[in-house]
Amino acid sequence: VFDWAGTVVDYGSRAPASVFMEIFRQSGVEITIAQAREPMGKAKREHIASIFRMEDVRGRWIDKYGSAPDDSDIDRLYAEFLPLQKSTLSNHCDLIPGALETVAECRRRGIKIAGTTGYTRELMEVVVPAAAAAGYTPDVTLAADDVSAGRPAPWLIFEVARRLDVYPTSTMIKVDDTPVGIHAGRNAGTWTVGVTRSGN
């Protein structure tokens, strides 16, 4: 079960980080690249909520707006995030060097391939065809909004197991470049492999 951005495509996982920085900048509260990356791997609305929970960001938001950020602020930034992310995604779909070879070796060994992501299904409508054109097509791809809760919950992995008829989950491997992706694997009872050079 491979993650997408930072694991198979988009070396450095640049697409989401830059957009998170931009939507906060447009609201007059700039965030650092480290703050944008810290919650990476979570579903994108929860990612924004996690940034708002950072003491520094929350404090500067209160200084600017006179009140703490609430659900309406999260919803507004999320609504701004989706179209901006979708418009930039096509520039961040290149396969990470070695990804195709790794997948080919897994298939040679009879291993089924799945992809899970913190992106929404709508965003994956840009990524999946671009990756397929470059030769990467998992047996199943699931987005954050395909289940009731994204990572670190295990539901994406459980749904992969159901669709591919693979069990027990201890026979599965979750490969991810984010801490929440690794936690999702552990929560699902899979082996986990952390990718350290091409993502977060």
Outline:
The protein is built from 9 helices and 5 strands.
Structural account:
By secondary structure, the chain is mainly α. The chain contains 9 helices and 5 strands, in the order E-H-H-H-H-H-H-E-H-E-H-E-H-E. A 3-stranded parallel beta sheet has the order 1-2-3, covered by helices on one side. It has a two-stranded parallel sheet with strand order 4-5. The longest helix is centred in the middle third of the chain and has 19 residues, at 71-89. It is globular, with a radius of gyration of 17 Å. It starts with a strand and ends in a 6-residue tail after the last strand.
Question: How are the SSEs ordered, and which strands pair?
Answer:
Layout: E1 2-3, H1 14-26, H2 33-37, H3 44-52, H4 55-65, H5 71-89, H6 99-108, E2 114-116, H7 121-133, E3 140-142, H8 155-164, E4 173-176, H9 179-188, E5 191-194
Parallel strand pairs: 1-2, 2-3, 4-5
Helical amount = 40-55%
Order of helices and strands: EHHHHHHEHEHEHE
What ranges have pLDDT less than 50 throughout 5 or more consecutive residues?
A: none
Rg value: 17 Å
Number of strands: 5
Shape: globular
Q: Determine the number of helices (DSSP H or I, runs of at least 4 residues).
A: 9
Biggest sheet descriptor: 3 strands, parallel
Structural class: mainly alpha
Strand percentage lies at: 5-15%
> Which sequence of strands runs across the widest sheet?
1-2-3
Query: Distance between the terminal alpha carbons, to the nearest Å?
Result: 17 Å
Mean pLDDT: 96
